[in-house]
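If you are new to this repository, start here. Below is one unmodified record pulled from the training split, so you can see the exact layout before writing a loader.
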Amino acid sequence: QVQLVESGGGLVQAGGSLRLSCLASGRTFSRYVMGWFRQAPGKEREFVAATSWNGGSTYYTDSVKDRFTISRDNAKNTVYLQMNSLKPGDTAVYYCAATTAYSGSYRNTRPVDYDYWGQGTQVTVSS
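And here is the target side for that same chain:
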């Protein structure tokens, strides 16, 4: 069992930056693929980024590539999402998700591929 708690969301102007954090507890954090998803009002939950268990590999959806960076610090049981050049279209609730590296992949982009989820943190980008 893994518990995930996101933090770092807030209100920013277009072009600004935020860094989201996801703290994991329960089972060993290392050896878990970690991903970030987001869901805007009235829209489906969509994949944002994911990283392999050791942080050596990353994968991004096209709309955030070159603007967002996912990273992890296994010693702190934490995964981060650095978001730069934010746009109003990035406004959403952002969710941290995890799946074991033994059964998952950092290339997983479907919510159903992830076993554990945080409660979400709101990101609002004003125009």
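Two things worth knowing about this chain: DSSP finds no helices and eleven strands in the chain. The chain has a mean pLDDT of 94.
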